[in-house]
Amino acid sequence: MSNPASPAATESKSAGTAWTAAQEVIAAVEPNIARAISGELASQRRQLKLIASENYASPAVLLAMGNWLSDKYAEGTVGHRFYAGCEYVDQVEQIAADHARALFGSDHAYVQPHSGIDANMVAFWAILAKRVEEPALANAGVKNVNSLTDADWADLRQKFNNQRMLGMSLDAGGHLTHGFRPNISGKLFDQASYGSDPETGQIDYDALRAQAKEFKPLILLGGYSAYPRTPNFRIMREIADEVGATFMVDMAHFAGLVAGGVLTGDYNPVPHAHVVTSTTHKSLRGPRGGFVLCTSEYAPFVDKGCPMVLGGPLGHVMAAKGIAFAEARQPSFSEYAQAIVANASALAEGLAKRGVSLVSGGTSNHIVLLDVATSFGLTGRQAESALLDAGVVTNRNSIPRDPNGAWYTSGIRTGTPALTTLGFGPDELDEIADVMVTALKATKPANETAKAKYVIDEKVAGDSRQRCAELLGRHPLYPGIEL
Ligand SMILES: Cc1ncc(COP(=O)(O)O)c(C=O)c1O
């Protein structure tokens, strides 16, 4: 069984011609760069990609980035730039924002962030501006920070740094930008984390409510990088309202499932959150980038993202975002989103029936998180390397209460957006589960204390690579492009 053909898996003669020509132009200046570009394509064609955060963008998305919109400075927002001559960047940004608003049904969309991390920084500062700076300015009877006295400014700067955020813990699947110390968000906010219930592996909303009442955060942050379930955003908004928090959701991972109408009602963050951030390049299948959606009360603050925390907007990437949002508004994208989830279920079932322990027992989104320590006596680091030897690309990930810590880990995170783009179907995901389990059963730690070194049966690894190559042969990436 396979899915409807997606743009990256559909033969396009003109895309082939365009890239051949582009490579000629590039190679004439620096052939090593041209070779690396071709090399990356060859490598992506060789790998069975189960990395949950990666995908294959369409030729239209990729081609929209290689042009002179890149040469234009356009700090500010549409119609309010710090530079002259921004007519066409204005058009591009407006088109992309209009598509984003229509796609997600939000009051406002800001499509400038260069990545997911940048989108979160824009959101944090917009919330601080609305909740902390605006009242301070009103209190001082001035319109902007430049008019504050030195004493009032010093007081406001203290207040910025004294705010609290409640986000999902890293081992339950949260992201570093959700208030963890190695990231600027952790240096800025006093953060507390909510985890998942040890029995179910899912968020316990009663526990979250009690924690929020005790901690009283300015921001309640939903969203995740490695949580295989679908949070209930209606309940989370209720909790935020009860404690006076702004409810923000980072949907970087599952934006494609929202766009495709798989996550609706309580599971769609957009109607419930004040501010929603995202990447464009994961399940949404667009260019590398980010964006912010928000209610109209937060819009003027979000729009100040550049130059407050962002460098000049990337007009060429906003053009590609516009293409990706337009693609996601097509009915075929909703079939794609449904297929991502069907494939993840097939992978989870295939792994579980072969004896693998899965975090939360399975999946309801695009992510399947394997506990490889319990299932195979391996660390995530060993399993990640062994799977690569077997032809499957994944990444190691902490699991809740991980005994092996954040570096070696006990988990392997897998996800189905990329293979679904290529047209893989549930039967093939079941076969991939078999390849993975066969390879991991043939892998042992190199010695009793080894956390990185491992030994894999060479014959099993070779056979597995063969099986992966055969599967990939059925679903070529960018057919018609010969580089
Ligand atoms: C939930 C979440 N937010 C933000 C990011 C950061 O995205 P980017 O790498 O585009 O900055 C990621 C990426 O892994 C993510 O999973």
Number of helices: 20
CATH topology category name of the largest domain: Aspartate Aminotransferase, domain 2
Poorly predicted tracts of residues: none
Spatial arrangement of strands, main beta sheet: 4-10-9-8-7-5-6
How would you sum up the major sheet? 7 strands, mixed
The tally of domains stands at: 2
Which cofactors or ions or other ligands sit in this model?
Answer: pyridoxal-5'-phosphate
Categorize the overall geometry.
globular
* Helix percentage: 40-55%
Write up this protein.
By secondary structure, this protein is α/β, with parallel strands linked by helices. It has helices at 13-27, 31-46, 59-63, 87-104, 116-140, 150-160, 184-188, 205-215, 233-243, 255-259, 299-302, 305-308, 315-328, 331-353, 372-376, 380-389, 405-408, 417-422, 426-441, 458-474, and strands at residues 48-49, 76-77, 80-81, 108-110, 164-168, 190-194, 219-223, 246-250, 275-279, 290-294, 367-371, 392-393, 395-397, 411-415, 443-445, 454-456. The protein is built from 20 helices and 16 strands. The protein has 2 domains: 69-328, Aspartate Aminotransferase, domain 2; 331-474, Alpha-Beta Complex (Aspartate Aminotransferase, domain 1), CATH 3.90.1150. The two termini are 30 Å apart. Helix 1 runs antiparallel to helix 2, helix 8 packs parallel to helix 9 (233-243) and helix 19 (426-441) runs antiparallel to helix 20. The strands form 5 sheets. A 7-stranded mixed beta sheet has the order 4-10-9-8-7-5-6, sandwiched between helices. Strands 11-14-13 form a 3-stranded antiparallel beta sheet. The protein binds pyridoxal-5'-phosphate. Pyridoxal-5'-phosphate (PLP) binds at residues 53, 115-117, 175, 177, 223-225, 250, 252-253, 279, 290.
